[in-house]
Give the backbone structure.
Amino acid sequence: MKKILVTGGLGYIGAHTVVELVNHGYEPVIVDDLSNTSLNVLDGIQAITGQAITFYQNDVRDLNAITKILRDNQIEAVIHFAAFKAVGESVQQPLKYYDNNIGGLVNLLKAMQTTQVKNIVFSSSCTVYGEPDVSPVNESSPIKKANSPYGNTKQIGEEILADCQFLNTVALRYFNPIGAHKSALIGELPLGVPNNLVPYITQTAAGIREKLTVFGQDYNTKDGTCVRDYIHVTDLAIAHVKSLDYIKNHPDNKFEVYNIGTGNGMTVLEILQAFEQVNDLKLNYSIGPRRAGDVEKVWADASKAKNILGWTAQLDLNEMVRSAWAWQQNLPKNAI
Ligand code: UD1
């Protein structure tokens, strides 16, 4: 099993995963509709790996195109990243999310069934746990009612995959990926005003945004700000490689989920302080009101991934914030 279709392979997590696939002897083929990224990312991937990567500009909802790509490339497994992920936008435009995230998944699975490709790694999210009663959460922790259409698409996506018994599925529940490749040639590239914390921090440090607002300091946490499990995107990328290795060695697997986090909960202020300290700069920020829909605290018990996939996070918070800033500083050369 070598030839891997990576949908959304020019997105933030997808691009880092393509690099690690090449590093570990897999042959990735990318399909991406460029709706939330740019072709420059392909240049970055090719510069890092020193290889030409096959790329198709297609939407995963195009059944004929995806079926042909699977067949023509003799694909043996799929990593499915292609989806929308902005929580607030999903509340405003729910059908956009159901159409792309659910419609795209169903379409991809139809194409896989037709071409008899049964192996898939799916991008899920810790959002499926909602506001957990206790952290760390493990894979048996209750799935709470989703607090956004986006979160619901991840819950439904897992259920669809579990129902498809012809598949060998690993679903990865990501915690909060941050940071960038150590080369600073690929990283997170939000279009417009960032929703997520670290791109907002780096854009503020770069002077693109005037000031960062910390969303609430009245939570029941050690410094009053929300707690998340931040994980380096390269570690997350490697979790996909380990998942493929597992699928290859367990052809009878049907459906398994794994938490992918470090197991450490960090507050927003701890992230800001680490960013300032490691990069030796001062951030302009102030405390503002809570953001609607935010979970107070969630972090991972990632022992299942360690015990079964043989995966643990290797890169620490310093490397996460160092690489995020290095990427931001490299951006004028690479910007869209
Ligand atoms: C969110 C989603 C998650 C999704 C992920 C990817 C929720 C509850 N979770 O994660 O399901 O997979 O985005 O898009 O919406 N913060 C600030 N100031 C900012 C930005 C963020 O203080 O300008 C804080 C937030 O309140 C939060 C933390 O930083 O406490 C992380 O926020 P963010 O990066 O947006 O990720 P999540 O909300 O955890």
